[in-house]
From TrEMBL:
Belongs to the AHA1 family. Pfam families: AHSA1. This is Polyketide cyclase. InterPro entries: ASHA1/2-like_C (IPR013538), START-like_dom_sf (IPR023393). Residues 11-131 form the Activator of Hsp90 ATPase homologue 1/2-like C-terminal domain.
Length: 137
């Protein structure tokens, strides 16, 4: 079973790709709510390369690392990776007349309800869209 989240961003494909893959930008948008942030992001964007995003509550009570390894990189088109817990994620970037359509499909984990996971991943994607739309010029 895979879950799907999507968004459309009003920026060039190159900008969307850059903001999605660059650690300094990732730290600005990679949170599902205002009470969380990403104080550290590392990204070795190549097949076999690894990424690590530290996600933390701003009150300092909760913190975890999201880590994985890239299995496919198709510049400006696709990114696939496997999280360290074995779940697979596929991201697609597509230029449309309305902007860049970004689609993420992911395998859910077993700890949280499916609806909560879908909402959380969509909230992060919505935050990415807001950040990119505001900062791409």
């Amino acid at each position: 079973m895979k879950l799907l989240v999507t968004t459309t961003i009003q920026a060039s494909l190159e900008t969307v790709w850059h903001f999605w893959t660059t650690p300094n930008h990732i730290m600005q948008w990679n949170n599902a709510s205002e009470d969380w942030h990403t104080p550290n992001a590392e990204n070795d964007l190549k097949i076999g390369g690894r990424f690590k995003y530290t996600m933390a509550s701003k009150d300092g009570l909760l913190c975890f690392d999201l880590e994985g390894k890239y299995t496919n990189i198709d510049y400006l088109s696709a990114i696939d990776y496997v999280l360290d817990d074995g779940r697979k994620v596929e991201i697609r970037f597509e230029e449309t007349i309305d902007g860049v359509l970004l689609t993420e499909s992911f395998e859910p984990e077993d700890e949280n309800p499916i609806t909560l996971q879908q909402q959380g991943w969509q909230a992060i994607l919505d935050n990415f869209t807001k950040y990119t739309n505001l900062n791409h010029n």
